[in-house]
Fold this sequence. Notes:
The protein is mainly α. Helix content is 56%, strand content 4%. The chain is built from 8 helices and 2 strands; from the N terminus they run αααββααααα. Strands 1-2 form a two-stranded antiparallel ribbon. A hairpin with a 2-residue loop joins strand 1 (65-67) and strand 2 (70-73). It is globular, with a radius of gyration of 16 Å. The model has no long low-confidence stretch (mean pLDDT 96).
Amino acid sequence: MTAxxxxxxxxDSGAIPWYAGSPLDxxxxxxxxxxxxxxxxxxxxxxxxxxxVSTQNADGSWYAEYQDGSVTNLAKDSNFTAYVAVGVxxxxxxxxxxxxxxxxxxVRGAIEFVLQMQSGDGPIRWRDTSAQFLLTxxxxxxxxxxxxxxxxxxxxxxxPDWIAAAAxxxxxxxxxxxxxxxxxx
Length: 185
């Protein structure tokens, strides 16, 4: 039932808004695509990931919000961008491992963008326009880095640098709580 509802609000482009006629953000879009896969709507999930391919910025990021085919928030959230790796690996494990090769350039670009925002202490900035490190965003990014590295390994392109970045981030999460700002929204 939930997958059918998600499919009912999915736009022809593959975009999945929060509800019909509403905005969407890349993180929730990926969550919805994973829901489609769990519900057996694999073609719809693939279309959602292909929407991400078609809207990815040249620097590897996505904007924070879209509506009706337009950008409505120009900020670039690191955890929104990294999360594509979780969804793509999920899709491959659930139904289509060949999808990894198709989406690898998208995942690689996203992770490279995100890692440009990693500080020397390990945390990753929340947005391109912010100096803040958010614990929830960094926890999500940690999982995304591990998924991205797993994709690379499956494709014969291991990324030990991503695993090292994830380890550095995990260490900051475990031992440096003073580096993180409470969620601002």
